[in-house]
Design a protein that fits this description.
The chain is of the alpha+beta class. The radius of gyration is 23 Å and the shape is elongated. The structure holds iron/sulfur cluster. Iron/sulfur cluster (SF4) is lined by residues 207, 265-267, 411, 413, 415, 462-465.
């Protein structure tokens, strides 16, 4: 979606175009005596920046799982009535931005599947790279009659995982998960549950974050630490890459399904995660401020004022100002009420472009030599419009500084960048990109500078969108792509909007 409702901006974006998109937030809670649906709601609220297309919660009272999901923001999907219907002591929840499968109600999560003894409900953050192989595995194991979410028109890699987790009649869900998880390739931070047990699992590379928290009377797992904070859970530790966690009446158990080969997404530090998140021990805000400091050292310039592209560029702009000694100022006002909109701008509004999101503070910037700090450039359209807008507002000079290196490669692990051909840094030198933006100068942080700011070892990070070095092998081009699963297993059956996921007896899917 073109606009983010969390006060941050899809920064490289003109109305009607897509910028880099997060690929979902997940939340799970096991807490007898608590209102788990409401905890999940607020957990999703804290993770809204990770996905704004749809939201859903699955809750279980120990006997039955009920899923409620719909298109839209968390606050649009749920009201007191919906949350009141989701009773129980454990829940999993999800907010979606799609990287596999279209933007449809059927593809909203959590997904449901019938196991031999009950139901599995699942939420997924990430993107699998071996979906084509898994389609074959699902068909081989279960045939055309056992397709669960796939039969209901779900065309996501999440539906494949759900289908595989439905398992065999002589296996528990835990046993099935330990068989299935090693078969998955790519990025996956999963929360799933049956009627009695909450599960969490993370791919061996730990590409996407996933953390464990403690409530007074239970446990929480979530994509980012602010979702723990908002429900009053204390941070315990990360879910380790290659780890499966189970939480039920017997307490918390942990199993390894693969060796850790850590390759966490560096872009989480640059832009994706909330600034108040901590990933692998490093504050995202502190990392961004340090990126700005490094940027000032690497690309100094004589200027009067450092301004951020709000909000995502703000911490790096603060760091640039601190290091350079140039005053920091707010030169742009953003529309604080920007939210998801289905309304496409008219041609007239399209001409205004960036002004739907940002407006200059003319008295602040008139006559000034500006350093404008942003976190990344994808297509360059927004920065081009921004430079023009600042000049029209009277800026004497506009120097653009970017707190990540040039984005030259697409992401296959859960972030929906533009295609390679659309990336402005693919094929243009830095000077040419700067000229294309109309800037007086352009400077990107170096790869080393960015990595140093994260305080992570380079060998433990994914940097593929900057370097082209993909830490998880990719299949052939024709086995990748967002719409890979739109057709292979046939058209959805009719009338399956409401589902009893028996034979195990438990699941129901509520369509508003
Ligand atoms: S390719 Fe880029 S956005 Fe994707 S996981 Fe790697 S670092 Fe993150």
């Amino acid at each position: 979606m073109p606009l983010r409702p969390d006060g941050r901006l899809n920064h490289d974006l003109m109305p009607g175009e897509k910028g880099p998109q997060d690929a979902c937030g997940v939340f799970g809670v096991w807490a007898p005596g608590e209102e788990v649906a409401k905890l999940s709601y607020f957990g999703l609220y804290a993770l809204q920046h990770r996905g704004q297309e749809s939201a859903g919660i699955a809750a279980s009272n120990g006997e039955q799982i009920l899923v409620y999901k719909d298109m839209g923001l968390v606050s649009q999907v749920f009201d007191e009535t919906a949350l009141g219907a989701l009773r129980g002591h454990l829940a999993v929840a999800h907010c979606r931005y799609s990287t596999t499968g279209g933007v449809t109600w059927e593809n909203a999560q959590p997904t449901l599947g019938a196991t031999a003894s009950g139901t599995v409900a699942l939420g997924h953050n990430g993107n699998l790279t071996n979906s084509a192989e898994l389609v074959g595995l699902v068909a081989e194991r279960y045939g055309a009659q056992h397709r669960g979410e796939l039969a209901r028109g779900n065309t996501t890699d999440t539906a494949l995982i759900t289908a595989l987790l439905t398992g065999d009649s002589d296996h528990t869900l835990e046993q099935t998960a330990l068989e299935v998880l090693p078969r998955l390739r790519g990025a996956f931070s999963l929360v799933f549950m049956d009627e009695r047990t909450l599960y969490a699992a993370r791919d061996p590379q730990g590409v996407r974050p996933l953390v464990l928290g403690r409530l007074e009377r239970g446990w929480v797992v979530a994509s980012e630490t602010p979702a723990l904070d908002i429900v009053g859970a204390s941070f315990v530790r990360e879910v380790e890459p290659g780890e499966l966690i189970m939480i039920d009446d017997d307490g918390l158990r942990s199993q390894r399904f693969a060796e850790t080969k850590r390759a966490g997404c560096v872009f989480e530090y640059v832009y994706l995660a909330r600034p108040d998140t901590v990933i692998n021990g490093r504050s995202v805000h502190a990392a961004r401020v340090e990126m700005g400091r490094a940027l000032a050292r690497e690309h100094p310039v004589d200027a009067d004022l450092v301004i951020p592209t709000p909000e995502s560029g703000t911490p790096a702009a603060v760091g640039y100002a601190q290091e350079s000694g140039i005053p920091f100022g707010q030169g742009l006002t953003k529309n604080a009420y920007v939210g998801r909109t289905f309304i496409q701008p008219s041609d007239t509004l399209r001409q205004l472009g960036i002004r739907l999101k940002l407006n200059p503070l003319r008295e602040v910037i008139r006559g000034k030599r500006l350093v404008v700090v942003d976190d990344s450039i994808v297509r360059g359209n927004t920065q081009r419009a921004l430079v023009r807008m600042l000049r029209e507002a009277g800026a004497a000079e506009v120097h653009v500084r970017i707190s990540s290196p040039p984005v030259k490669w697409p992401c296959f692990y859960g972030i929906d960048f533009a295609s390679r051909a659309e990336l402005i840094a693919n094929g243009l030198s830095v000077d040419e990109v700067g000229q294309s933006l109309g800037a007086d100068s352009l400077g990107y942080i170096t790869l080393d500078g960015m990595i140093a700011a994260t305080q992570q070892a380079e060998s433990q990070l994914c940097t593929a969108c900057f370097t082209g070095k993909y830490p998880i092998p990719l299949p052939a081009d024709d086995q990748l792509g967002k719409h890979l699963l739109e057709t292979p297993l046939g058209a959805p059956e009719d009338g399956l909007h409401a589902l009893s996921a028996s034979p195990g007896g438990g699941g129901a899917l509520a369509r508003p």
